[in-house]
Specification:
about 280 residues, 8-stranded parallel beta sheet, two-stranded antiparallel ribbon, 10 helices, 10 strands, about 40% helix, Aldo/ket_reductase_CS
């Protein structure tokens, strides 16, 4: 049971990854990402998730250097963007990300989206980075089972993580089962449903525990064994999102939350995107 912000899941290669992290998508205002990362780390967060396409890796890197927490205690994720697929292009993109972050190594490097006809070759580049020791773990993002099948068919290294849109309205049950059977850790982006937290069931369950709907959803993630990375630059909200380790949802409430699944996406469909 996940009982504190310090708890980590063990990936299939033995690397430990925090169950709770900070997502920094769309934090592009001046100093916004630096302040958010600094505040998160001071609150106890140790995992920060960025991407080349977020255009804020430099700010994340500055905050990491100035935070006062040893680098080895932090878990930093970034991702290769769609225009940088292909073996050589992905290797070049990684070096650019590493330079922007100012880090000797990246903890987790992901393929951001499964660009048709290219992600298998890109995976080979990530395997090289992993074998070279430039990254501690590699994985994918927004991959469906058939995308993962393509990777597994040629992989020397099984992906450690699959980061996808995941929340009570998009339970991804088949994908969860697939990932678990292959020891691929599922990770939730947009866990708080773009702020759509006024669902009656969420309000009712939250009230019964003396928690907020957001805290209930994040706790649901953890009890479903899904790593979660809610985004916020508000210090009070960062603390609220981290205050999820002092209660446990009952089996009945977990079932009610699971039953909210209606396959509703707020983001793009991995099988139908054009960017």
């Amino acid at each position: 049971m996940t009982t504190s912000i310090d708890k980590r899941t063990t990936l299939n290669n033995g690397v430990q990854m925090p169950w709770l992290g900070l997502g920094v998508f769309n934090m592009i205002a001046e100093n916004e990402v630096e302040q958010a990362v600094t505040s998160a780390i001071s609150t106890g967060y140790r995992s920060i998730d960025t991407a080349a396409s977020y255009n804020n890796e430099e700010g994340v890197g500055r905050a990491i250097r100035d935070c006062g927490v040893p680098r080895e205690e932090l878990f930093i994720t970034t991702k290769v963007w769609n225009s940088d697929h292909g073996y050589n292009a992905a290797l070049t993109a990684f070096e650019a990300s590493r330079k922007r972050l100012g880090l000797e190594f990246i903890d987790l490097y992901l393929i951001h989206w499964p660009v048709k006809g290219k992600y298998v070759e890109t995976w080979k580049a990530l395997e090289k980075l992993y074998h070279d020791g430039s990254v501690r773990a590699i994985g994918v993002s927004n991959f469906q089972p058939h995308h993962l099948d393509d990777i597994l068919a040629i992989a020397n290294v099984v992906p450690m993580v699959n980061q996808v849109e995941y929340h009570p309205l998009l339970g991804q049950q088949a994908l969860r089962k697939f990932c678990k059977s292959h020891r691929i850790q599922l990770e939730a982006w947009s866990p708080l449903m773009h702020g759509r937290l006024d669902e009656p069931i969420l309000r009712e369950i939250a009230a019964s525990y003396g928690k907020t709907p957001a805290q209930v959803v994040l706790r649901w993630d953890l009890q479903n064994e899904v790593v979660t990375i809610p985004k916020s630059s508000n210090p009070d909200r960062l603390k609220e999102n981290a205050d999820i380790f002092d209660f446990v949802l009952s089996d009945a409430d977990m079932a009610r939350l699971n039953a909210m699944d209606c396959s509703h996406r707020f983001g793009a469909d991995p099988d139908n995107f054009n960017f």
